[in-house]
Structure formats: structure tokens, C-alpha cells
């Protein structure tokens, strides 16, 4: 590709993997003081997937990646950058899960690193892919959102264990000279003053592994659910309104609104504020729960596999998570339709 022509990043292919084990609301009723009715009403979640004990974030990521690379019509050797978004890496914190994925895929001599932005990780990874491609540094970037969230969930804590699930989604982002395939806009942001809304206190240099960590369960995710909920609705609504207004696109012209799948009530509130019709809003939270960085690529994969997402159609992505972080993106799907 001649460097005299402008180069754009385009979304070429999507893939996903979910573990086979299902954890239903009925299962959770036997584990903590909760009910199917409460979970469904407050979150819209019916079930989530749980990885096997010896199935790691990198394993799920590798499976999703192979599918995405094949659907992009590329060889493994065409990938020149691998970015994995995860807050449940195989190891805290070395080696990066992306390095393990590159080995499992058989990719040699390729730059690979992880991004930690919780549920916003996949859209953060998209922004990295865009920057590397549009600067001319890379041509085919593999981005993965993968989580074994069950590894940091306390299954005696009813306020968190009902929410999360495991899974992985991957996308290939490639260079193109065709402007109609380019990302339209992407906005990513963070505010660390809300860091304590969603936190896994250990292990880290604040709380290195110790008996106290085990005794106090500091290795498990902690969340100020209600505060996070309110801020999520407010921030996400503003974020999507801003990106649409800035690009002079009306919400009715978005065929696929793909929000982070944290809670049906958050998605409904943001969708309603945008006056979105039901068929515009992608929903997978009911069957997968909140899979953090994997949630958006898993949701895109869902509409691609069901034939709803066609080549050239516009996607509006919107996410919010620990950090706190948030991000939105407007882009066409530039891969082949199923
Ligand atoms: N079953 C039954 N009762 C429960 C359960 C449960 N599983 N969990 C909490 N309750 C009780 C509480 O104890 C409380 O009881 P009380 O009134 O007697 O004190 C009552 O239900 C209400 O609790 P709230 O926390 O106020 O319930 P809320 O309506 O806020 O729903 C939820 C909780 C589902 C966690 C919601 O707040 C939420 O979805 N928050 C946002 C999550 C999110 O978006 N996270 C960001 C991304 S995640 C990431 O980045 C990794």
C-alpha cells in the first residue's frame, strides 16, 4: 500500500468463543440468598457461561482469534500487532496474556501487549488499533477482549456473583485506502477519582499476597453497584448523544447500537434516551451476563452470526467500566456478511 494515499482503519472480521458450562439463576439460588425473579428484574440476566478450571483467558481468546482471522481471509502470519483487553489475565501481571495468545496462535515476532480498562477494554483496544494503522506502523491488528471473570468473583457475595460470566471476542482491524470503510469516530475517557466504585484490591503492590488477602477476600471483585449504575446511565447517555451530534448522525440511522452488556436496565435507559427502537439495540446480557472486555465483541459476533450485521452497516459501540473508564465508537462493519 503506497504511503502517499491516506490509510484508514477498518473493522474486517469478528469471532467469539463461550465456554460450554452454563450457570443459571436457578443454580445461583442454591449458592446465595437470591432468586431468579430478583436477578431477572434487576439485571435482565438469566444465565452466564463459566470456563472450566483448566480453561484460561488465553485459551478462550485464542479460540475467538482463530475464528476472526479466518473470517478476515488472512493467514496467522499476516497479523502484525496483537492487543488483548482483559482484567482477568492468565498471570498477574507477567507475562502479558497477549504474549501467551500469540504463542498459542503460532504468531512469531509480533508486538503484543495487554490493555487494562475493564469493560471498556475492547473499545480502548480499537482506539489503539486505529492509531497504529493510521500512523502507518501496522496493517492487520488482532484485538481481543477476553475474561475469565469467574476467577475473581466471590460466589458467596450475592451482589456481584449474579452479574458476571466468562468468554472472549476477537476482531481483525485492517488498513484500507477506502474511506467508506473507515472508523467514523471514537472517544475514550477515564476518571480515576471513581476508582473505588469497581476494584479488585489484590494482588498488587497495595496488597501483595498475604494471609490477610485470603482472609478478607481482597482478591475478589468489589463493586459499589448502585452508585456505578447511576453514573453509568448518566455517562453513557451523554457519551452517545455527543458522538452522534458531533458526527451529525441521527440515532434512527444507527442499525446496530451495541452497548456494553452489564445490565438490561442500563441498556434500556440509554436506548430510551436515544429514542432507539428495540430492533436497533443488541442484547446478549440475558444469556451471557457481564463478560467485561469480552462483552462488546461477543455481542457483535452474535449479530454477525445470526445474519443481522451486514457489510457496510453502521455500528455504535458504547461502554463503561472499572477505572472508571468509558468509551464510544461509530464505525461501519467492513467485513463480509455471513
Ligand atoms: N438477590 C437478592 N437481593 C439482592 C441481591 C441479589 N443477588 N443483590 C443485592 N440485593 C439486595 C441488596 O442487599 C439490597 O437490599 P436492602 O435494600 O435490604 O439493602 C437491595 O437488593 C437493593 O440493592 P441495590 O444494590 O440498590 O440494587 P440495584 O437495583 O442497584 O441492583 C445491581 C444491583 C444489579 C448490581 C446494579 O446496581 C448494577 O447493575 N450496577 C451496575 C453494574 C455495572 O454497570 N458495572 C460496570 C461494568 S462492570 C466492570 O467494569 C467489570
TrEMBL record:
Question: Cellular location of this protein?
Answer: Cytoplasm
Q: Where does this protein chiefly localize?
A: cytoplasm
Offer one Pfam family short name for this entry. ACP_syn_III_C
- Pathway(s) served: Lipid metabolism; fatty acid biosynthesis
Query: Could you say which enzyme class this protein belongs to?
Result: transferase
GO biological process entries: fatty acid biosynthetic process; secondary metabolite biosynthetic process
Q: Which residues form the active site?
A: 119, 260, 290
> Which family does the record claim for this protein?
Belongs to the thiolase-like superfamily. FabH family.
The free-text domain remark for this protein reads:
The last Arg residue of the ACP-binding site is essential for the weak association between ACP/AcpP and FabH.
Protein name as catalogued: Beta-ketoacyl-[acyl-carrier-protein] synthase III
For this protein's source organism, the top of the classification is: Bacteria, Pseudomonadati, Campylobacterota, Epsilonproteobacteria, Campylobacterales
Q: Which gene encodes it?
A: fabH
